[in-house]
Amino acid sequence: ALMQLGSEHKPKVTIEDARLLVPRSTLRVPIPQALTGDYQQTCVLSYLCPKGYTAFSQSLNLTQVPEKLAVGLMEHDRIQGVADKNSFAFNDYNLKTFAVRSNGLTWPYAGGVSCDFDAKDWGQAYSTLFSELDAVAPLFDRGSYKSGYVILGAKLRGQSRTGNVDVELELAEAADTPLVVLVFAYLRARFTVDKRAGFSSTTDPRQLQ
Fold it and tell me: Cβ distance 151 to 129 under 8 Å?
């Protein structure tokens, strides 16, 4: 309510200083021996697709080949924070093809994803939410997918955890504004809690065998 916009798109209230006070507490848990376990770690990467480009290809800088990826497009000024734009809108931007390549293989499906949002043909892209990202129940239906929820997934099934990973996108028309390609990579990680060394974690494939 404090940040509700007026007719001139300016905040009605300016917050000059804000502090969050958190009570301090100490938790002591006896550890008789070293404990280890596996968990899923999410790494968020962002890359710029310049204005006027129709093709995007990027090799991801990761310590391992992820178990799955979620990819979405957003205008550059949205992610920077503009008062009159929704910073959580993933639009289609005339996306034509999407593919993830690693070690000579392509996901999702054999040749990636093809779509035509102008012709209302985005069923293959929408289906990756379930086949690749394991969505249990849809938060929005197929018809609403275009309205700010265009996220595509790729599950790298049966793949070695080492190797390069490339994300490729093609737009049917050049974007009239710089776009940010957001990549959510789901990695396998292992933690270790040792009485002497404390807590540590790793995503190095060589230590996850």
Answer: yes
- Radius of gyration of the CA atoms of the chain, in A: 21
Residue that the structure tokens 């990973």 belong to:
165
Residue range 140-193, pLDDT digits in tens:
788 889 988 999 999 998 778 888 999 999 999 998 999 999 999 999 988 888
Instruction: Pull the structure tokens for residue 58.
Output: 């990027």
Cβ contact 108:154 at 8 Å: yes
Beta partners for 198? 194
Name the pTM for this structure. 0.78
- Contacts for 104 with CB less than 8 Å, ≥ 6 apart: none
Q: Which tokens is 197 given? A: 């060394």
Nearest in space to 37 (alpha carbons), one of 193, 206, 205, 209: 193
- How far is it, in rounded angstroms, from Cα 75 to Cα 190? 35
Where residue 104 falls (left for φ over 0; alpha for ψ -120 to 50; beta otherwise) is: left
Structure-block tokens of residue 100: 């993830």
61 CB-near residues (< 8 Å, 6+ apart): 45
